[in-house]
Amino acid sequence: MKLTVLVDNHTYIDRYYLGEPAVSYLIEDGARVILLDVGYSDVFIENAARMGIDLNRVTDIVLSHGHNDHTGGLSAFFARFSQRVRLFAHPNALLSKRAEGLDIGCPLSLEELREHADVRLVTKPFALSEHVTILGEIPRVYTFEADRAVGETQSACGCCWETDELADDTSLTLTLPEGVFVVTGCAHAGVCNTVAYAKQITGEVRVTGVLGGFHLFEEGDALTQTIRTLSQLDVERVYPAHCTSLAVKSRLFTAMETYEVGVGMTLEWQE
Ligand SMILES: [Fe+2]
Ligand SMILES: [Fe+2]
User: Fold this and answer.
1) Ligand that comes closest to the CA of residue 242
2) Which of 32, 92, 194, 217 lies in disulfide reach of 129, CB 3.0 to 4.6 Å?
3) pLDDT tens readout for residues 17-27
4) DSSP alpha helix (H) spans, 89-129
5) 52 CA distance to ligand 1 centroid (A)?
6) In a domain, 269, yes or no
7) Domain count of the chain?
8) Does residue 255 fall inside a structural domain?
9) Which domain CATH number covers 168?
10) Ligand 2 centre and the CA of 200: distance in Å?
11) Where are the alpha helices (DSSP H) in the chain?
12) Which ligand approaches the C-alpha of residue 69 most closely?
């Protein structure tokens, strides 16, 4: 099983890939080739081409949530690739979203997505492949991870706007012989809530790693509790990316085994 970072805010020195403040990870598990998010633009397609990765092989697209730095590349994908993929998203991921006067939601409607993909709206855990599971809606249990709303979302009735608690936010688990590896998009649900639920769903005790956006920016008491809880949850190493500030990465780096994420990074596991 292999994970490749196709898009992140950060790019490594001496490797000439493109960065953008967005997320796209490619996860290959046997015959299934899974894209977790598609970035903000067509940059993930350009980076894959530069890496020699053929996205015609993609079988599944998972939207971690509806924000356009995770869904913005959908039109470019469907314009370039014609295979009929399975597309997984929480129903709320396809509702309109806005913040500070800007449209920040998924650019394609459910009807438009269905023209190109076999759309599966999921709120519960679902096994995508032998080792990869989408968590669905993540229970919010830790009080220090409350109050993480971003902008507003269209209500289910479609007639008004309400504070967006990002119920659509989800993550993937990779089940390895040595434990579970968690891959987040933005972790709007809270990285500790996400890891706790990943352990509950998989029954795994060890968490070999957590990679992705942690949606953490501020130093303070909540961060102290986050780091303490990650340790209590037996997280062995972290790969903070995308929406994780330098200050937070620095605190993580001094507290636990922490790795730098950039476009072109690969992780490979023996199954
Ligand atoms: Fe987001
Ligand atoms: Fe994001």
Assistant:
1) 2
2) 32
3) 999 999 999 99
4) 110-116
5) 28
6) no
7) 1
8) yes
9) 3.60.15.10
10) 25
11) 43-50, 68-71, 74-80, 110-116, 191-202, 221-232, 246-255
12) 2
Burial label for 14, CB within 10 Å (0-12, 13-18, 19+), is: exposed
Q: Tokens 């998010």 sit at which residue?
A: 37
Which ligand is located closest to the Cα atom of residue 22?
2
Cα 70 to ligand 2 centre (Å)? 6
Q: How far is the CA of 37 from the centre of ligand 1 (A)?
A: 11
DSSP class of residue 31 equals T
Q: Which two tokens stand for residue 49?
A: 């081409």
**Total residues found in the chain within this entry:** 271
What is the 78 CA–ligand 2 centroid distance (Å)?
A: 21
- Where do we find the tokens 């290959």? 28
pLDDT single digits (tens) 130-181: 999 999 999 999 999 998 999 999 987 878 999 999 999 999 999 999 999 9
Residue type, 119: V
Domain coverage including residue 198: 2-260
Ligand closest to 104 (CA) is 1
Q: State the distance from the centre of ligand 2 to the C-alpha of 66, rounded, in angstroms.
A: 9
Classify residue 265: in a domain, yes or no: no
Task: Tell me how many degrees the CA angle 7-258-198 measures, rounded to the nearest 5.
Answer: 75
**Among all ligands shown, which has an atom nearest to the Cα of 66?**
1
DSSP letter string, 71-87: HTTHHHHHHH--S-EEE
193 CA distance to ligand 2 centroid (A)? Answer: 17
Confidence (pTM): 0.97
Q: How far apart are CA 61 and CA 228, in angstroms?
A: 33
CA 213 – ligand 1 centroid, Å: 9
For 30, left (φ over 0), alpha (ψ -120 to 50), or beta?
left
Distance 212 CA to ligand 1 centre (A): 12
